[in-house]
Design goal:
The protein is built from seven helices and ten strands. It has 295 residues and is α+β, with helices and mostly antiparallel strands.
């Protein structure tokens, strides 16, 4: 499979990545990432994982609001529009399992390299009504335009409930990653009179949309009773500050559960050399600094 960047054929990281993409049957998805800026993986996580994740999120919402919501019948009086539920990784072990789901993680590695970090894991919990989430690029964390062609951040959006336009689905703008900028004010809108190039991601629970950090996306208003739940797993390259705090904040029991899973721990900053205090830098970690786009 050809790659869009000029990378030495002997690159071990690239060789590992190409092997994984082939073994997982992801070649078509790589082409879609290059051409559309996003791709959909059907059945990225199992139905039991979806149900466990939903229960954990509903429990968090109940603790936050003081009331239990019915995912099928909730009204705008119960919860209107979108509420972001952050920092879910340590909420329940199910989120640890989802973090390293093989197919999405392989595509994230294609976009960001083996040294990438988990930036945040949360849920865009959307009830009926409210307003759409305007179109935007995830490069909103201070990356100036024109954006580089390679991805510096990337996202996996798992559907935990059915997605449709009426149900408040994720919206994507195909090819927008090549514009290398944020949308202009007249390009932000969704719905009537909104951006005509935005498409609704009509997908099923367990499916995942993976996208390049430059790609424009948002979400439609929910017009149906009940709630739309997702799991947004956001990653960045090693040199960008993560949205959430991990690193030395990772609970000890999580470290112990994944003591033999180097990729999991590396996603949480185990090899990150920066962020030292009075003890100074750990120079040994600098040996693991990335040398290219894929390591």
């Amino acid at each position: 499979m050809a790659t869009p960047q000029t990378i030495p054929a002997e690159s071990p990281a690239l060789a590992r990545l190409l092997d994984a993409i082939g073994e997982l049957g992801l070649n078509r998805h790589v082409v879609e990432l290059e051409t559309h800026g996003f791709t959909t993986i059907e059945g990225a996580i199992s139905a039991p994982l979806v149900e466990r994740a939903k229960r954990a999120i509903l429990n968090r919402v109940a603790r936050k609001t003081g009331r239990e919501l019915n995912e099928h019948t909730a009204s705008s009086e119960d919860i209107e529009g979108m509420t972001y539920i952050p920092y879910l990784l340590y909420e329940d072990e199910v989120f640890e399992e989802i973090l390293t789901a093989p197919k999405p993680l392989a595509l994230i590695t294609y976009l960001l390299g083996e040294s990438c970090l988990l930036s945040s894991m949360g849920c865009h919990f959307r009830g009926p009504g409210g307003r759409p989430l305007p179109l935007h690029s995830d490069n909103g964390n201070g990356i100036p335009a024109p954006f580089p062609a390679f991805s510096q951040v990337a996202n996996v959006n798992y559907a935990l409930t059915p997605y449709s336009r009426e149900a408040g689905a994720l919206a994507m703008v195909p090819g927008s990653h090549k514009l290398a900028r944020q949308p202009r004010p007249e390009e932000l809108g969704l719905g009537a009179g909104g951006n005509p190039n935005a498409v609704s991601m009509d997908i099923a629970p367990g499916d995942a949309v993976v996208w390049h950090g430059n790609t424009w996306h948002g979400s439609f208003v929910r017009d149906l009773p009940g709630v739309r739940m997702n799991l947004a797993v956001y990653f960045n390259r090693q040199y960008i500050r993560t949205q959430e705090r991990h690193g030395d904040a990772v609970p000890q029991e999580v470290r112990e559960r994944h003591a033999n899973n180097a990729r999991f721990l590396n996603l949480l900053g185990a090899k990150q050399p920066y962020g030292w205090r009075e003890e100074g830098p750990d120079y040994g970690k600098f040996a693991f600094m990335p040398h290219g786009l894929y390591d």
